[in-house]
């Protein structure tokens, strides 16, 4: 993996068979305590051989670590792993959040300021991890304190029947839009108006708000899927979306507001 030359720590958070799952952690230079953490879940994870990896969010991680957060690119099981299903990705997302909270003191973070960011299938994974009641334990320490979502799939029935037809009997269970409820984390959402899932994203955000949850929605006119990635559109959407995310996290008290 060609991730980042200045990783503060490359940490194994889980092992499944021979598969070693790692966190690629960017830590601010200043050795502070009680910082917020942000975990990034990359997209492209539900289709084989598309070249995506945790490095997809490298530039986001660098940006937020420079602003004082502990930023973490998460390696989680994907379609290139034998026998993969979305359940594996969801389990790994929960494991990653739990590991970060369990090691909060060592990482210098506040366990009540853990943000999860996901894009596309990574966003779907983040939402499922937060919303679905499929864990055999009664633990809830996998639920983040805030969400940052980029053009995530929300219609699990469409996703499962298209990509994992063998799980069609589980499609309702794996559909985030069917599991929105009250008392969910505050969320910021980004989607382009030319994205094929634009309308479903709007419907999901509206349902989030109808359940008295905070959702800050930013739509980007004429933009398609993945518009926010580094090196796309001369980096203009990248810069705009990270700044809007910073302002959102500042409003929650997760980042300091500069005067």
TrEMBL record:
<protein>
    <submittedName>
        <fullName>Esterase/lipase/thioesterase</fullName>
    </submittedName>
</protein>
<dbReference type="Pfam" id="PF07859">
    <property type="entry name" value="Abhydrolase_3"/>
</dbReference>
<comment type="similarity">
    <text>Belongs to the 'GDXG' lipolytic enzyme family.</text>
</comment>
<feature type="domain" description="Alpha/beta hydrolase fold-3">
    <location>
        <begin position="38"/>
        <end position="228"/>
    </location>
</feature>
<dbReference type="GO" id="GO:0004806">
    <property type="term" value="F:triacylglycerol lipase activity"/>
</dbReference>
<dbReference type="InterPro" id="IPR050300">
    <property type="entry name" value="GDXG_lipolytic_enzyme"/>
</dbReference>
<dbReference type="InterPro" id="IPR029058">
    <property type="entry name" value="AB_hydrolase_fold"/>
</dbReference>
<dbReference type="InterPro" id="IPR013094">
    <property type="entry name" value="AB_hydrolase_3"/>
</dbReference>
<keyword id="KW-0378">Hydrolase</keyword>
């Amino acid at each position: 993996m060609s991730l980042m030359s200045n990783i503060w720590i490359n940490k194994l958070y889980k092992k499944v068979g021979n598969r070693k799952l790692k966190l690629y952690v960017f830590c601010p230079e200043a050795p502070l305590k009680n910082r917020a953490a942000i975990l990034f879940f990359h997209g492209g994870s539900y289709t084989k051989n598309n070249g995506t990896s945790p490095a997809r969010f490298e530039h986001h991680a660098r940006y937020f670590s420079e602003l004082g957060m502990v930023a973490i690119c998460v390696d989680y099981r994907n379609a290139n792993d034998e026998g993969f299903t979305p359940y594996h990705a969801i389990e790994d997302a929960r494991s990653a959040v739990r590991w970060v909270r369990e090691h909060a003191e060592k990482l210098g973070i506040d366990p009540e300021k853990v943000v999860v960011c996901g894009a596309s299938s990574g966003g779907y994974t983040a939402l499922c991890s937060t919303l679905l009641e499929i864990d055999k334990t009664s633990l809830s320490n996998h639920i983040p304190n805030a969400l940052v979502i980029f053009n995530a799939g929300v219609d699990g029935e469409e996703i499962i029947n298209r990509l994992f037809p063998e799980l069609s009997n589980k499609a309702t269970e794996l559909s985030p839009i069917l599991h929105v409820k009250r008392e969910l984390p505050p969320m910021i959402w980004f989607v382009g108006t030319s994205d094929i899932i634009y309308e479903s994203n709007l419907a999901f955000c509206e349902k989030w708000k109808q359940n008295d949850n905070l959702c800050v929605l930013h739509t980007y006119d004429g933009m398609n899927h993945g518009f926010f990635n580094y090196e796309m559109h001369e980096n203009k959407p990248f810069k705009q979306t990270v700044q809007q995310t910073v302002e959102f996290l500042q409003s929650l008290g997760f980042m300091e507001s500069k005067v």
